[in-house]
Write a structure and sequence with these properties.
about 240 residues, single chain, about 10% strand, alpha+beta, four-stranded antiparallel β-sheet, Alpha-Beta Plaits
């Protein structure tokens, strides 16, 4: 008997899922409307509200030795220097000096989160970059940061090998926001919200609509069904009977 009950429960869940799918299919226009609305709102946010961002980068060449040739040991030293430089470049002393020189209104902790440093594989190049809504401001901060950091490094080790290979310039080519990403997220979010609303309405709807609903609600089988003839005006039929 338990096996029969499990089979009935599985059939009931399967039927409910099918009914749910059909209910969503009938409301395809609402799903499409949610998708379009999400795309429109994402487009307004991307091109009307969110400001474009720009990236400025500076590159530093680290020799790692006094020789002119590159060795594997030099590359290892360059990788180690990258970690050391990252600590120095984002230190409170250096960042506060950059803020004071430029006279910008920002906390050094917030500035540290905007600084990115990287060392391309198998190179002795250290890249310092920053992304901001103002390209000129980003370039000024990066160049000043490199200048102040090198001064601090000289104070600790005058013989430290380094050279500024490329200074940062104001590049007004926006790197963000990503329109395809925002549109995809907005459209998917709008579609999911509408689908969630339709699913809740389907689950909360306790109206009896089919013979299966009658059997589940009353626990008795349906013996027969009387189809409704929509061509008949039942109000007129009632009047004639009176």
């Amino acid at each position: 008997m338990n096996e029969e009950w499990n089979e009935q429960a599985q059939d009931e869940v399967e039927i409910n899922l099918v009914d749910l799918f059909l209910a969503l299919k009938q409301k395809w226009w609402a799903l499409l409307l949610g998708l379009l609305l999400g795309l429109i709102l994402a487009g307004i946010y991307t091109w009307g509200i969110q400001k474009p961002t720009y990236t400025a980068s500076s590159m530093i060449y680290m020799r790692g030795s006094s020789t002119n040739t590159t060795s594997y040991q030099d590359l290892q030293v360059g990788e180690a220097l990258t970690q050391d430089y990252e600590v120095i470049f984002t230190s409170r002393v250096v960042l506060q000096e950059v803020i004071d020189r430029l006279g910008i209104d920002i906390d050094y902790k917030d500035l540290a989160t905007q600084i990115e440093m990287s060392n391309p594989t198998d190179t002795r190049i250290l890249t310092v970059s920053m992304t901001s809504t103002d390209a000129q401001r980003a370039a000024d901060i990066v160049n000043t940061l490199v200048e102040v950091s090198i001064e601090k490094i000289k104070e600790m080790d005058p013989e430290e090998p380094y050279r500024v290979f490329e200074e940062a310039i104001a590049d007004w080519t926006p790197v963000g926001p990503s329109a395809p990403k925002n549109l995809a997220v907005g459209g998917l979010l709008g579609l999911c919200l509408v689908a969630a609303y339709l699913i809740l309405m389907y689950v909360w709807n306790d109206k009896i609509r089919t013979s299966d609903d009658v059997e589940r609600a009353l626990g008795i089988p349906v013996l027969c069904m009387v189809p409704e003839n929509k061509s008949v005006n039942y109000s007129r039929v009632k009047k004639r009977r009176r």
